[in-house]
Amino acid sequence: MYRSLHGHLGEKEIELVNHQIILQEDLVSATRMLKEGSTRLATVVNSKDFNDVGIAELLMTAAKAKLSILKAQLLENSGNLNRLRKKTKKMNDESKHYFYKLYCFC
């Protein structure tokens, strides 16, 4: 039973790490979108041609919303990963203690 539970925890950790990687890639994408919106807004202001101001505003608004969501998801995923790693460490420590007791009492 311990091995199957330990294997499950290993699979869960891999799943959480993979999810973390995807979230970080999304974060890079949203940051690029925010930068693009800022660049477009600066261009609009410098050229005094306000036709593209709506696009710049839309890019920045969407990017800020996405960044806010990603921040919450990254925090949640990191917390889940930390809890899982603590649980795995505790199980490993208990296992070592159990086998040490078996070895010493033989």
Automatic annotation (TrEMBL):
Q: Which domain of life is it from?
A: Eukaryota
**Name assigned to this protein:** Uncharacterized protein
